Amino acid sequence: MGRGSGAQESMVLATKDDDASSDAHIAGSLIDKEAAAGPPGAAVAPKKKICCACPETKRLRDECVTEHGQEACTKWIDAHLQCLRNEGFKV
């Protein structure tokens, strides 16, 4: 009885170790894919809501569009989009 339970116990431990190393491998793969997704130094996830990010460029963009129309404000629209990208948003 002692030998049988010892063999079963070592098999259970081996299975748990295999599961742990498998989970670590999967987690490592996900981290590698996320790191490869963007350039070095790029934010992985935005820290703010998109409505609260880049208030300066948003204000300038909105004022320009209100006064001059969208076609005349591509400079400010592009600046705001770039600011959002710098904050980690995919726009």
UniProtKB/TrEMBL annotation:
Keywords: Chaperone, Copper, Disulfide bond, Metal-binding, Mitochondrion. PROSITE patterns: CHCH. Transmembrane segments: none annotated. Residues 1-20 are annotated as: Disordered. It is found in: Mitochondrion intermembrane space. InterPro entries: Cys_alpha_HP_mot_SF (IPR009069), Cyt_c_oxidase_Cu-chaperone (IPR007745). It holds the Pfam family COX17. Belongs to the COX17 family. This is Cytochrome c oxidase copper chaperone.
